Amino acid sequence: MKGTISMKKLLKTAAIAGGALCLLKGLDNRLEVTHYTISSPNIPDSFSGFKILQISDYHCDNVPGIIEEVRQESPDIIVSTGDLADDDGSYMPAVRLCERLSEIAPIYAVTGNHDLWRGDYNEFEDELSRLGVKTLHDERVILSKDESKMSLSGIDDPFTLNNSKAAENIQSSLAKFSRFDGYDILLFHRANLFDLLKYHGFDLVIAGHMHGGHIRLPHGGLVSPRSSWTNGQSIFFPKYFGGHYKAPRTEMIVNRGLGNPTYIPRLFNRPEITVITLKKEN
User: Fold this and answer.
1) CB neighbour class for 67 (10 Å; exposed up to 12, middle 13-18, buried from 19)
2) Which sign does the torsion angle of CA 241, 89, 55, 258 carry?
3) Got the DSSP string for the chain?
4) 92-101 vs 66-73: helix axis angle to the nearest 10?
5) 81: closest CA among 262, 268, 258?
6) Phi first, then psi: what are they for 18, rounded to 5°?
7) What residues have CB less than 8 Å from 230, skipping those under 6 apart?
8) Which residue of 48, 75, 123, 258 has the lowest C-beta tally within 10 Å?
9) Taking the complete model, does pTM exceed 0.85, yes or no?
10) Residuewise pLDDT in 10s, the chain (282 residues)
11) Quick check: 79 and 54 in contact, CB under 8 A?
C-alpha cells in the first residue's frame, strides 16, 4: 500500500515537473532566425545568392538581440511587412530600430493595419523617410545588379474588416501595376489574403500579420489576429499562419512576427526574423 502511494506521488511530481518544463519552453521568447532558399529560373544570374531579411509586426515591442542577428546575416536588403508600430503609444521605438537597421542594409516597407490605424501615421512615415526607409504605397522599385533587374513591389494594407471591401481595395491597388518582365516580388501585410493575390503574376509574396497563429500547435497556429475575424475566414487554425506556402506559379513566405500587441503571451511561438536567399534555378 505504501509503495502504491509513493508511486502515485512520484507520478504526480513527474507530471508537474513535465508541465512546468513544457510551459517554460512554450514561453521561450528568444529571437529565432528562419532561413529559406527560393529557387526560380526567373531569378537573374547576378541575383543568385541575393539575401532578403524580413521583419514584420514589431509593434514597438522589446526584442533583445535583433540588431546583432541582422548584422550577422549580412542581408542585401531588409524588408518590413507591416505593423512596425502599434495603433497607439509612441512610434519612436520603431524609428530607433530602423535607424540602426538602415546602417546594415537598405530598408523597404509596406503599411500594416496597426500602422494605418494611427492618427499620426504620416508623421511616423516622415521619420522613417528621413532615415532612408522606402515605404511602397502601391508602387514598384527596380533593383539592379550587374545590369540585371528585379522588381520589388508593395501594396498598402486594405484597411478594412470587410472581406468584400478588402478584395476591392486589393484589386484597386493591383490595377496600378503593369506586368514586369522578370522576377517580381510583392511585399504585403496580410498573409491571410494570399488567395486574393496568388494569380496576379508575382513570383514571390512576402507577408506577415498572422503572428504565427499566436499559439503554435504541432500542425499549425491556433488563432487569427482579431482584425482578420471576418466573414469567410476561420478564427481558429488559420490557413496561412507562418512559413512557406506554394501555389501555381507563385509562393509566399510568412513571418511569424517580432512583437505581441496582446496581453496573452505567445506560446511555442518565438519572435522571428526570416532570411530569404534567392537562387537561380537552371
Assistant:
1) middle
2) negative
3) -HHHHHHHHHHHHHHHHHHHHHHHHHT----EEEEEEEEETTS-GGGTT-EEEEE---TT---TTHHHHHHHH--SEEEEES-SS-SSS-SHHHHHHHHHHTTTS-EEEE--HHHHT-TTHHHHHHHHHHTT-EE-SSEEEEEEETTEEEEEEE------S-HHHHHHHHHHHHTTPPPPSS-EEEEEEEGGGGGGTTTSS-SEEEEE-SGGGSBEETTEESB--GGG--TTS-SBS-S--SEEEEETTEEEEE---S---SSSPPBS---EEEEEEEEE--
4) 30
5) 258
6) -65, -40
7) 161, 162, 163, 166
8) 123
9) yes
10) 555 667 666 555 555 544 444 445 556 999 999 999 999 999 999 999 999 999 999 999 999 999 999 999 999 999 999 999 999 999 999 999 999 999 999 999 999 999 999 999 999 999 999 999 999 999 999 999 999 999 999 999 998 877 778 889 999 999 999 989 999 999 999 999 999 999 999 999 999 999 999 998 887 888 888 787 765 677 889 999 999 999 999 999 999 999 998 888 899 999 999 999 999 998
11) yes
| Residue for grid cell 546602417 | 103
Place of cell 547576378: 46
* Sole residue written with cell 498598402: 156
| Residue located via cell numbers 524580413 | 54
